[in-house]
Amino acid sequence: MKHRLKQAAVVVVVLLLAIQLVPLARTNPPVTREIRWDSPETRALADRACLDCHSNRTIWPWYSHVAPASMLVVDHVTEGRRHLNFSEWDRPNAKFDDVEQNVRDGEMPISNYLWMHHEARLTAAETARLLSGLRATFAADPPIPRPKRPDRSH
């Protein structure tokens, strides 16, 4: 029994070491056009809670270089930028209603981001100010709409 546990431990260690070799792109592409924020406060709140995953100015922490955490972080940033990227406002982005719903439902910021980034945990008052500021920001500088998907019900 002890021999099998040792073998299993060796296999796990070898796999953890091997996945360190998987190349991952931790990039910060150039900002093509940043959204025009309604106020410095909205920008500061978004910086605390949103911009690591929803901009091209990601701060890549140490654990984003250690697998398997790196795989999760890179995936979250890639997906976050795909849905909403405040650094590429010259491309299609999510509508305010979608952003508001995700924040109100507690889906954003995601819970595992909050584990490591306590500063991103906004109070109820800060969340209300962020959403109010984002509403004004999106109204003054609306995103380019996403193309409608073709109806595939036929």
Please render the helix and strand layout as text.
Elements: H1 2-18, H2 40-49, H3 69-83, H4 96-104, H5 111-116, H6 124-140
Helix pairs in contact: 2-6, 4-6
How would you characterize this protein structure?
This protein is mainly α. It is 48% helix and 0% strand. It is built from 6 helices and no strands. Helix 2 crosses helix 6 (124-140). The chain is elongated and about 65 Å long. The mean pLDDT is 89.
Can you give me a brief rundown of this structure?
The chain is mostly helical.
Key structural traits:
single chain, 154 residues, mainly alpha, 6 helices, 0% strand, elongated
Shape: elongated
Percent in helix? 40-55%
Number of strands: 0
Helix and strand string, N-terminal first? HHHHHH
The share of residues in extended strands comes to under 5%
Return the structural class: mainly alpha
Which spans of ≥5 residues are poorly predicted at pLDDT below 50?
Answer: none
Sheet with the most strands, sense and barrel status: none
How many helical stretches? 6
Gyration radius, in Å = 19 Å
Tell me the distance between the termini: 59 Å
What is the overall pLDDT average? 89
